[in-house]
Amino acid sequence: MSDIFRCPIDGSKFIKKWVCEKGHTFSEVDGIIDLLTEDIKSEKILDIIAPIYESVWAPFGLLITSGKSYSYITRKAGEMISGTIVLDIGTGTGKIFDYVKCEICMGLDISYKFLKILKDKRPNVVAVRGNALKLPFADESIDGISAMFVLHMFPSVLVAVREINRVLKHGKKCVATILTKNNMISQFLATIWGLKIHSVDYYIKIFEEVGLKVDYEKIGAWTFFTCAKP
Ligand SMILES: [Zn+2]
User: Methyltransferase type domain: from which residue to which, for each copy (predicted)?
Assistant: First the structure.
């Protein structure tokens, strides 16, 4: 499995757990592989509500902003990206892995607090603390990628999508559910979260720019994007 991983600093292979060819050393604590190279802060509010994220926050929040249930959207995404090696970016508690069929199932997040919950609830999922803008994985190493409810929070969507495209194998799929400029609810959410949100077209352009084929479906304030690497 460590074949899939690359040093987030220089992209070299790991010669052992977790020392890269150039000698950078990373730690694994409580089953969480920590490959974060800088101290990136997660959304404060999310860290506070982490213990009730999966049971209350996401189900309630999505129902009123999308009209669909959290499990419906997550299942739809999970079934699409099933494959041997699957990566969920911004995985949180790793809920999607209830619906993904995978042999190596990896959840990436910057929040140690969320990854700890993931590891307690779903011990089979490989928990990786890392930066989505600098994915610690080899080129074309992954069979399916999801990024649920996260891309609208990123400082650079283009870099994140370019990274998804880089690590995804040819002929494989990705999914992303993004808060987009759809209606008054999305504007309202953007205001209370202090986010600058974009149109569906903005994201389509980015997916296409990096070479991914993209399709979408609006779900209330959110848009469910499916992408594929030709
Ligand atoms: Zn290194």
Answer: 87-175
Distance CA 164, CA 162 (A): 5
Domain of residue 72: give its range: 27-228
CATH number at residue 34: 3.40.50.150
Distance 20 CA to ligand 1 centre (A): 5
Q: What is the pLDDT of residue 212?
A: 98
Residue 218: strand pairing partners: 223
Q: What's the token pair of residue 186? A: 């999305």
> pLDDT by residue (tens digit) across 173-207?
999 999 999 999 999 999 998 999 999 999 999 99
- Whether this prediction's pTM lies above 0.85 is answered by yes
- The count of domains in the chain is 1
Question: What does the pLDDT look like over 135-150, one tens digit per residue?
Answer: 999 999 999 999 999 9
Distance (Å) from CA 22 to ligand 1 centroid? 5
Examine residue 199 and state whether it is found in any structural domain, yes or no: yes
Centroid of ligand 1 to alpha carbon of 100 (angstroms): 31
- Put residue 110 in one of left, alpha, beta given phi > 0 → left and psi -120 to 50 → alpha: alpha
- Tokens coding 216: 């979408």
State the distance from the centre of ligand 1 to the C-alpha of 21, rounded, in angstroms: 6
**What pLDDT score does 191 carry?**
94
Ligand 1 centroid – CA 25 distance (Å): 8
pLDDT of 1 over the 90 cut: no
Query: Of 82, 203, 191, 201, which Cα lies nearest the Cα of 146?
Result: 82
The b/e string for 41-58 (b: 16+ C-beta within 10 A; e otherwise) is: ebeeebeeebeebbeebb
